[in-house]
Amino acid sequence: MSLIDLIKEEVVARALDELIIHPPKVPNRLVVPPARNSGGLVGRAFNYALGFEIVRQNPVATWGEWGADRSLRSLSSSLAGVKNLVGVDLEVAQVSANGVRLDVQDVDTWTKIIGSARRDLVGYAKLKEPIQEERAAMAQHALRLAKIEAYFRSGMIDPTVNDTRSDDVNDITALVAAVPRGFCSSPEVATIGPEFGDASRAVGGADADLILDDAIVELKTVKTLQVRQDVRQVVAYLVLAQVGQIEGRPPSCQRAVLYYARQAQVIELALMDDFKQKTKLVFEIMQSAATTVE
Fold it and tell me: What is the pTM of this model?
């Protein structure tokens, strides 16, 4: 069960709602209208592209395993499992697992794409003010990585992983350009894609988008807002941050922030005064619901 599914459980939703004073009112004024319906691709790619910018602007930024890395590891493991089960030659074979075509060539392709993105990020991080062509090149990397990540998120393999559409590239660069100045340019703490150790594992696995200083930040690249669900999601991450750890250390997260990329809106939630006192109980409710549903 994903965290998105978990927060839809009535008992969990009710517990999370009790941690906030009231849902925020978010004006739905599109600053960056979508170029097309990409089915979530541009949203995932924007997370990578913003991560690239955070790394470029912040020497303190840390970024652990990418979702694309997890897809590669998962695919490699699945192929090895099928090989052991049926004895196929994975140097030449295409096999099927759970209705998804698995091909050893995907492992090679994904490895090259991820390696190329990491190498180019090293150079990009040294640029003081990238030109449009350099930003577009990183947007292309973001799109490829987002396509690979789809396997980890939903079990789907995109056969067009190397292809990037110019309208998607332009959309991503526009979204990055619309980020309010100062939003993520000078934090003392910048952690991209944090997980919270045993706390994340206890609810079936959960990784947030960002930690900036003492704030958990959830990124949303949507045309139509679902504020209530988004609030519950970011508050759930804050609960995990309160009881969990990142690389053996508890994060000092005290705030919950939503960033709506197409609206260029930064929304900080108003939390109840007794938020900290309630987090352990809410975490136990989340953990119990995750176990019961599974």
Answer: 0.91
